[in-house]
Amino acid sequence: MKLARKNSQESEAEKGVIHLPYGLIGLPEMQRFEIAPMPGSWPLLSIRSAGSEELRLIVIEPNTLIAGYELEITDEDAELLRLDSADDALIYNIVTIHSLEPQYLTVNLVGPIVLNRHTSIGKQVIIANFEHYSAEHALIDDRQKDDAA
Amino acid sequence: MLVLTRKLNEGIMIGDEIEIHVSRIESDAVKICIQAPRNLTIYRNEIYRQIKQSNLNAVRKASEKLPRLNFPEPRPNR
Q: Along the 78 residues of chain B, how does pLDDT read in single tens digits?
């Protein structure tokens, strides 16, 4: 029994399927996603909802991309997601495309999707140290480059 | 909208499970304690609105084709 359950979880994770039982903040129906790299646009990832209307978000894993990003989550969220240590968690931050020419993309550092890597269950949380970070942190900003040209 | 007046250490119940009480009053700030079931997330409303708006701005139809985006950082060696 135990093995079978573990296998089915692994195969979900292998397919890149993640579950957010509470949906996204303001979008509670967006609960099940498939995650995939975006060819030619590393390190951006695409997460696609499998709902009535197919929707997509762009996310990044912040690890080495956002210098000095040290998020803290509340004990309630850690308990809810059954995270015993930081190693159990995967973090995705949602990217907003404000403009394409010039490219201006921001990343939401205040409300990341935090995932338990063992269960593939996650939640969009508001980080406990939200005061230190921006919900619109510039990721790609070519606006000034364009002005100078 | 229901509007109630509460004094220090008084509270309100919302249904049977959500309890809110006023624990401190200062000149321009009120400290409130909230007890609610674990499956309800409690947000400061300005942050809730900000993140909701950010999500709405970020979400796209899956059918919409995305252009190649130029990220400035080089791919690290593995």
A: 999 999 999 999 999 999 999 999 999 999 999 999 988 889 999 999 999 999 999 998 888 877 777 776 555 544
pTM: 0.84
* Contact state of A126 with B43 under an 8 Å Cβ cutoff: yes
**Closest by CA position to A145, among listed A98, A90, A103, A83:** A103
Q: Identify the contact set of chain A against chain B, taking CB-CB distances under 8 A.
A: 22, 24-27, 30, 38, 40-44, 46, 48-49, 53-58, 64-65, 76, 79-80, 94-98, 100, 103, 105, 108, 110-111, 124, 126, 130, 135-136, 139-140, 142
Query: DSSP assignment, residue A11?
Result: H
Complex ipTM value:
0.83
Contacts for B24 with CB less than 8 Å, ≥ 6 apart = B8, B30, B31
The angle subtended at Cα B31 by Cα B30 and Cα B35, nearest 5°, is 135
